[in-house]
Amino acid sequence: MDNQTRLKEALAKAFGEIGIEIAPESIPLVESKEKAHGDYASPIAMKKAKEAKRNPVELANDIASRLPADLVEHYEVAGPGFINFFLKKEDLESVVRKIFEEGPHFGDGAKKNRKIDVEFVSANPTGDLHLGHTRGAALGDATASLLQKAGYDVTREYYVNDCGNQVRHLGLSLYARYKELFGYPLELGDDDYHGEDLIAIAQEIKDQKGDSLLAGTDEDLAFFSRYGVDRELSKIKKDLSDFGVHFDVFTYESDIRKSGKIEEAIAFFKEKGLAYEQDGALFLKTSAYLDDKDRPIVKKDGTYTYFMPDIAYHYDKLSRGFDLLVDMLGADHHGYLARMKSALMMKGYPENVLEFGLYQIVRVYKNGEEVKMSKRTGKAVAHRDLVAEVGVDAVRYFFTERSGDTHLDFNLDLALSKSKENPVYYSQYAYARCHSVLTLAEPLEPRLTAGTLVLPLEGEILKQLASFPAMIESAGEARAPHKVAGYVYRLASLVHEYYASTRIIGREKETLTCSRLALLKASSIVIKEALRILGVSAPEKM
Asked: CB of 245 within 8 A of CB of 133?
């Protein structure tokens, strides 16, 4: 158990002794920014003073005095009732031994016995991935890794939209490119796909089929659509694999449609009085739940709206035993959450069985100017191109270091720089520095001797290491990989400062040297694990 958790539990117990029940996880606790103010601070006495019917300062002193002596060396009550906690030094130092014992498993959360499905990317297989998909891939995969680290049973899923109007236009566009190879003029509509990547696919079809598909029958066009989907999805899988993203499950919309689950759902809605006909279309009564209006699920011509197969797909996911569905989607899907939650609630599922992880658009800048993106015209800044230019590590770090609900301005020049301003380089370099010092110090071994790490900066590093499990728990609960990025950058900054200000290797002071090496080794283990969650490598040399 980490020190923050121990302290929160001790505070909860102390409040219980005076008749106030409080959950440990609800107790606010922050790291003190200045050593003079202790290791941690909490305003909990001020928050509970009214309930306790006591003066906040008096309550703070009473609560702090009840804390176990083997955890808190001493405390101070500051201002209107803040409690500053000074932990016993040996408790902070114990984190190094714990990291050595647990290695990369340090910070693993207790098993939650909750199954979570994280669906992300799910790009239509109609062309190359663009940077919106890249952000979804980085955030989705990091969120899944974070949840696994926090103790959840996680499945990564990709939903293949291989039906509908966009797939039909893909087939038409591919057919147009195929005809062009036989000397026919290129005819593409505004809604067709103009990307030149279709030329190579059309050539494959020509090599296999010759001119046998020039008639363009319904059967021929269905072939072009299916062939195009398969080839585009194959490219998407390759690009994602090169990006370090792998899925456990691929679910196809066409399989959902063939399974009869859509018809089953519609029959259920009608039986329960949850659907009604209006102007020839079938509407779902989502406004009876969380939605602002009812939504059509079957059009006048008898075809499904895109919403209906999605409902059946979410029913399918939940039928597989998941306790929570997390859908990572672009910010333009903001209004979609209420209607989908409503559809799930109609089946008796709780409102919180579904979460959306919405992410904003990405703008790319190079030499101070924005690089424009347009997938449909073939002028996109493709995922593949960006990764090739700056590397997987830089893209994954930059795309996860901020909350998904904020716009991302990706600075190509910064991503390629080797400076403190480039957070991924700075974090990786901290790991490489630790490895370099440990190698240089051989045959001395990292070994901590109690009471040797007395420098204030060493205490700051110990506190940062000790906070890793609590950070994982809170970041996992919030589905917030950007907290991991912020954590690792802070730890890297402390390591760089320590390296620059402290003589780590002093062979005439072997005991102190071995303790400092132990501190660096522990730091390197945690840095590497934090970077792994983000999908970023930890090179030993840079």
From this structure: no
Separation between Cα atoms, residue 220 and residue 198, nearest integer Å: 17
Q: Which two tokens stand for residue 413?
A: 């020049």
Q: Which pair of tokens denotes residue 321?
A: 């035993």
- Return all residues near 323 (Cβ < 8 A) that are at least 6 apart: 114, 115, 116, 353
Which superfamily is assigned to 115-161+245-359 in CATH?
A: HUPs (3.40.50.620)
Neighbours of 85 (CB within 10 A): 24
Using DSSP's 3-state secondary structure scheme, residue 42 falls into strand
Does 419-534 carry CATH code 1.10.730.10? yes
Domain boundaries, the chain: 3-87, 115-161+245-359, 165-240, 419-534
DSSP 353: G
Give the ranges where 217-362 is alpha helix by DSSP (H): 218-242, 253-258, 261-271, 307-319, 336-346
Low pLDDT (below 50) residues in the chain: 374-378
198 neighbors 171 (Cβ within 8 angstroms):
no
| Four-way CATH pick for 3-87: 3.30.1360.70, 1.10.3660.10, 1.10.510.40, 3.30.710.10 | 3.30.1360.70
Q: Do domains 115-161+245-359 and 419-534 have the same CATH topology?
A: no
Report the C-alpha gap between 351 and 475 in whole angstroms: 22
What are φ and ψ of residue 479, in 5° steps? 50, 55
The token duo for 510 is 């072997």
Report pLDDT digits (tens) over 172-193: 999 999 999 999 999 998 888 8
> What pLDDT digit, counting tens, does each position of 334-369 carry?
889 999 999 999 999 999 999 999 999 898 988 888
Alpha helix locations (H) across 401-540? 412-416, 423-440, 456-466, 468-478, 481-501, 510-534
pLDDT digits (tens, 9 = 90+) for 424-468: 999 999 999 999 999 999 999 999 999 899 998 999 999 999 999
Give counts: helices (H), strands (E), the chain.
20, 15
Q: According to the model, what pLDDT value does residue 374 have?
A: 47
80: amino acid identity, one letter: P
Give the global pTM.
0.87
